[in-house]
Amino acid sequence: MNFAERLADIRACMQEEKLDLILGVHDGGHFIEKPNPVMVLSGFKSLGPAAALLHADGAIDLIVTPHWDAERAAELCPDAHVVGADDVVDGALAKIRNSAGVGTSGLRVLPYGIASRFAAALPSARSADKLVFDAARTKTSEEIANARAAARIAERGYERLIEIARPDMSEDELAVELKWHMKTLGAEDNFLLVCASPHNRAVQPSTGRRLQAGDIILAEITPSCGGQLTQICRTVVIGEPSDELVRKYRLVVHAMDQGIAAARPGVAVAEVCRAINAVLEAEGYGEYCHPPHIRRRGHGLGFASVRPGDVALDNKTVLAPDMLFMIHPNQYLPETGYLLCGEPVLLTEHGAAPLTQQKAALAAVAG
Amino acid sequence: MLTSQPTLLIGPSDWDAEVMPKAEFTGRIATLWGLYPEAPCAIVYGDRVHHGELAYLTNLVPKLEAAVALLFPDGEAELHVGGGPNMIGAARPLTFITELKPLRGGEAIGRRAAESRARRPGAPLLIGGDYMPTALRQDIVEAIGVPPLDATAPVWARMRRTTVYDQLAMFNAGGALGVAVEAIATAWEDGSGVTDAVLAGERAAHDEGAQDVRTLFSINGGRTLQPFTMPVDQQVDPLQVYVAVRRFNYWAEGFYSISDQPQPAFEKAQELLRRALAAIRPGVEPAAVEELVVSAMKPYRCHPVTERALVSRIGIALEEPPHTNATMAFEPWEFCSVRVGITDEAQNHAIASAMIRVRDEGLDAFWSAAPNPIEGRPPWWNKDAG
Q1: How much is the average pLDDT of B353-361?
Q2: Which domains are assigned to chain B?
């Protein structure tokens, strides 16, 4: 599927739902878990609040802030009519004559200061979130190419971590260096969680804590290329890993393998989670397969759509080719603490294909 | 200046009591109660995009999930951190507040605020409420039972009045900015392509301890600016850059144009910048400075990037309130970024800026794209200013 075909799908759905216009709005606060309807409808990753208006005839208006970013938007989105605005609400509403027949997307997660103005101005508008994000549940060929590029960068970022992580370096210093390194390789953004402890309770943003021998470093490395995130989850020990840590890490890798094997077209996402849990439950870790220890076993990858959603027991979404998502057991075990292990996978006709060259394996650096 | 907002804030943000003592925060909070003596509590929201008010009152800059502070007149303070109980450990080093709890939704916050009305029956204060997701805000307001009082704007007004600690942090940010811009210039002179040069600047700022660095650059001689989206190997002359550096929670920003050729447009922008700086003093309105600059701009016109943004107050927030009101006169000890951008709408474009501290009489320019912005002061980073 390419971008034009996706838009054609959305327009077909608009016709079915008797929508004359879809208004997608995003505040520019790009976040891994916040889907972006402006990117779905226009492909543009904005600096500030932006809106994309898809009309029934296929015409697209793109309202961007700051106003001076309009020229860049026009170059990147040659088929859209781009307007630079000081205020996204005023700019978008100027393009809407009648709120009847308008579907909105993205309003639910907007800041109140923006969302409340749209809600007041468009009282008859209906939510079109499902329509927009379902249409983007599978990735376009361009998004897949970007995901592959980001996966390569993520792996090189991980190699850099192995190269430079050492005792007395702070988590912040390590994270800053990795982010910078991956930017030099082409990552325009990075959801990079790096933390360490002899016994981690979870993966967290980095702090000023200094690394020590015996620490287990958790790295959730998530670079973005062309607005498409890809993630790898890795675990590194400073010094010699204990036999128990080696055994437990093999267990979570095995659980991940079972999850990857379970991911096939026609299968519900929940089945992937169930396959991972089954491995851990068989080893007596059933109570650790639920909150507060674990919320999900993977997730979709934005910034545009985050479909197919969380790899969780309550996700009934049926997997289809060209869906892109993470499979990560990322398990807390009482003996070792939290362990990160995860791969980005692209669903093909034959199953889930990891985008990485090297599967997660416990690594060690000098202590 | 608005730049690409990263999906996660990465960089040193731990609270350092030597840089910003707890007394600074308790003093700010006490001022709030002085303004609102009837208020039983203040609800302060911040997320990784909008957090100026939260950082001002608690030092917390949320790196990942949003946070809500509940502040009470008796000195009690709670921070409710998003992302579940496992995120508490990562948030703890970022603030002086010791009572950290998982953020359990708006209803719990609203109920806690409502309870505090047993001691003082006034309306709770809401700060940063417009940045909240709608559902969170609605749940809070419904659980309180009375409409909260929006106290965001008065906090912005207080943020303008800096203390010596704010000023030292700003000078530190300005120092890192100077190092970053010099590194970009050096890399460019050594033959680096556009993004390699810009990344050299980012790296240099990080080496200076920067908490965050944001950049924009131009590949068309300064006509338009763009964020990093992919490596750009080409070399351009001139290279117009924008760099914003955050250190100890405070931002400094600068526009500069690098070339080995004479740059009439940049020289003109520098001259206009010096004019602007010469006119700034307490009591003067930004509109008057803008008029002065525009009247001397011919044959150029305002650059779109700096149009309507000649002066921007800056500090703990980069691109959020307190927005500059053109008729809000300069005040002593506030920090501003002064930007002059010009274009002939053909081949010549340039933006030059300065970071200033307004003084009782005049100002300090502690970073400037114009050599000798004020007579007798050094061109880049004024190391004596701190």
Answers
A1: 94
A2: 22-159 (3.40.350.10), 164-368 (3.90.230.10)
